[in-house]
Amino acid sequence: TRAKNHGIPAVCVSPKDYGTREAFHKALVETLDGFRLDLIVLAGFLVVLPEELIKKYRNRIINIHPSLIPSFCGTGNYGLKVHENALKRGVKVTGATVHFVDEGTDTGPILLQKAVAVQDDDTPESLQRRVMEEAEWELLPEAMRFGLFQRLDYMLHIPISQMNKENRFYCQVREYLRGHRQDILESAYLTGKNKE
Predict the structure, then answer these.
(1) 157 noted as active-site residue
(2) What single-letter DSSP state applies at residue 136?
(3) Is the pTM of this model over 0.85?
(4) Of these residues, 6, 25, 65, 83, which one is catalytic?
């Protein structure tokens, strides 16, 4: 409902609605392909993505994980379990990581990280909340801006002859962006700063 209230199209593609994982994967890829996506953001998304999707959107899918990767990540480390494991291990610092998604679990290139101190009286729930508020909620919007700017910068420098069919629509706005790129970047930067 929040998306609808802001005029943003919202679609739900759930594995529960499909008889097989393959049927779900096909529907997911087709749905995403129906939008001209520059960036796919995973937040609390606990479904393994199909390899076809990862290949098609390489370096355009980001995920946020509630630890400082490579600590407390990978298969089985999600949600509250991450913070339980951090407390069991006795770490003094934890945090969050935004990374590109690849074929592994939390193994893609790291974009951003932010540390959060572990307090002596922390419970998994209190630590989870503090990592969200102090790290995740700050990192994800910053990474989204970073990811989109990287994409814009890439598209402004690639020769049109080397663009694949998927990227050719950028040609329509390419010259406009060349002339207004600095204004766009400054506007987006200021918009992000004003929200802080």
Answers:
(1) no
(2) I
(3) no
(4) 65
